[in-house]
Specification:
It holds the Pfam family LacI. One of its GO terms (molecular function) is transcription cis-regulatory region binding. Keywords: Activator, DNA-binding, Repressor, Transcription, Transcription regulation. The protein is built from 13 helices and 14 strands. The protein has 366 residues and is of the alpha/beta class. The strands form three sheets. It has a six-stranded parallel beta sheet with strand order 4-3-5-6-7-13, sandwiched between helices. The chain is elongated, with a radius of gyration of 27 Å. The termini are far apart.
C-alpha cells in the first residue's frame, strides 16, 4: 500500500486502455459545471465578490482589507483549488498579462536562446510568454497573427518573414496590439525593432578572414530579401571593396542546415574545390557546410571560416571558426522593456534599437 500513497493519501492510478478491469477507481469525469467560480469563493467566505477579487489578485493591503478576511478568503481558495480565469480578468482589465512571440524556427539556437531569455524576463514581471514557430512560411505567420490576436495578447514579438509591403502588422497595431520586431527589422517609422548591428559585424568578420590573405572568398547566405540578410551581405561587400581575388556568393531559400549543405555542395561542384575563406550568415547554415565537408575532411583543414552565431562547440573543433555572437540577453531585455512600456505606460516609440555583436576570434596568423 505504501507504494501507492502520497503524504498519507491514497493515489488513484488510471491505466489507459484497461477499461477499469484493473480494479482501480475510474477518474472522475470532467464537468465544467463543477468548476468553482469567483462568486462561489465570495459566498463561501462570506464576503462580496469585489473583496474576494481584491484578495485573490494581491490587492488586499492596497484596499485595506483586514487580515482576518484575507485569511478566510485564502482558506476557501485553497480548500476548493480555485484558480483565477485570466481571460475573464483580461476582459475586465483589458490586459491578459500574456505576450506572444512568433519566431521562424524553434530549432535555430539563436531564436531559442532569445525565447528563453524573453520567457524568463516576462515571468519575472508577471507575464506569460506564448511561443510559436512560423517555419519562415508567410501563410503560417499570418495564421499565427490571428491566433495571438484571438488570445488577446498584450503585445506581440516577431521575427517576421513577411515582405515590407505586407500591411498585416500595421493593421494589428492599429487595433491596439503593440508589435516589437526582433532580429529582423521592420519599418522604423511604424514599428519598434530590436536587432543585432549586423552590417558592421559582417564587415569586421569578413576583414578577419581577409587578414589571412586568401586568393578567393565565398559567402553562403539565405533569404536575400530579408533586411537581416541584406545587412550581412552589405558588410561582406564593403569589406571587399579593395579585394582583387575571386568572390562568390550563394543564397538559399531558407536558414536551415539542409540549405547550407546544398549550397556548399553547389559551391564545391562549381568551383571544383574549396575557397580559401568562407563566411556563413547563420550558424545553422554553418552546420550544413560541415555536413558537406564531412566527406572530404583532409583538404577542409585549410579552409578559413567565419560565421554569424556562436556556440561553445566551436571551441573544440579541429577547424577553427571566427564567429559573431549575438547578445541574446540584451536583445530580450530591450525588447521586453519596449513591450511593457507600450502595454503599461501606453508609450510606444517606433525606431530601431541595434545591439552590437561580440567578435570571437579563433583563427590567428601563423
Amino acid at each position: 500500500m505504501s507504494d501507492n500513497c502520497d503524504n498519507g493519501r491514497l493515489r488513484q492510478w488510471h491505466r489507459i486502455g484497461d477499461n477499469d478491469r484493473s480494479g482501480f477507481a475510474p477518474a472522475p469525469a470532467y464537468n465544467k459545471e463543477n468548476l468553482v467560480k469567483l462568486s462561489d469563493i465570495a459566498r463561501l467566505a462570506g464576503v462580496s465578490v469585489t473583496t474576494a477579487s481584491y484578495v485573490i489578485n494581491g490587492k488586499a493591503e492596497q484596499q485595506r482589507i483586514s487580515n482576518a478576511t484575507v485569511e478566510r478568503v485564502r482558506a476557501v481558495v485553497e480548500a476548493h483549488g480555485f484558480t483565477p480565469n485570466p481571460q475573464a480578468a483580461g476582459l475586465r482589465s483589458r490586459h491578459t498579462r500574456t505576450l506572444g512571440f512568433i519566431l521562424p524556427d524553434l530549432e535555430n539556437p539563436s531564436y531559442a536562446r532569445i525565447a528563453k531569455q524573453l520567457e524568463q524576463g516576462a515571468r519575472a514581471r508577471g507575464y506569460q510568454l506564448l511561443i510559436a514557430s512560423s517555419d519562415d512560411q508567410p501563410d503560417s505567420e499570418r495564421q499565427l497573427q490571428q491566433l495571438f490576436r484571438a488570445r488577446r495578447c498584450d503585445a506581440l514579438f516577431v521575427a517576421s518573414c513577411l515582405p515590407p509591403s505586407d500591411d498585416s502588422y500595421r493593421e494589428l497595431q492599429a487595433k491596439g496590439l503593440p508589435i516589437i520586431a526582433i532580429d529582423r527589422s521592420m519599418d522604423p517609422k511604424a514599428f519598434c525593432s530590436v536587432i543585432s548591428d549586423d552590417q558592421p559585424a559582417s564587415l569586421e568578420l569578413t576583414r578577419s578572414l581577409l587578414a589571412l590573405k586568401p586568393a578567393n572568398i565565398a559567402l553562403i547566405g539565405a533569404r536575400p530579401e530579408l533586411s537581416v540578410s541584406q545587412a550581412r551581405a552589405s558588410g561582406f561587400d564593403q569589406a571587399l571593396h579593395a579585394f582583387t581575388g575571386k568572390v562568390s556568393q550563394y543564397q538559399g531559400e531558407a536558414f536551415s542546415r539542409e540549405c547550407g549543405r546544398q549550397l556548399m555542395s553547389e559551391l564545391l561542384a562549381e568551383q571544383g574545390g574549396l575557397p580559401d575563406a568562407l563566411v556563413t550568415t547563420s550558424y545553422v547554415l554553418l552546420q550544413g557546410v560541415f555536413d558537406a565537408l564531412s566527406t572530404r575532411p583532409a583538404d577542409s583543414r585549410a579552409l578559413h571560416l567565419g560565421t554569424f552565431g556562436d556556440t561553445q562547440l566551436l571551441d573544440f573543433l579541429p577547424l577553427p571558426v571566427n564567429a559573431m555572437a549575438q547578445q541574446h540577453g540584451l536583445i530580450a531585455e530591450t525588447a521586453l522593456e519596449l513591450a511593457l512600456a507600450a502595454v503599461e505606460q501606453k508609450h510606444y516609440q517606433p525606431g530601431i534599437h541595434a545591439v552590437a555583436r561580440t567578435f570571437k576570434q579563433r583563427i590567428f596568423k601563423g
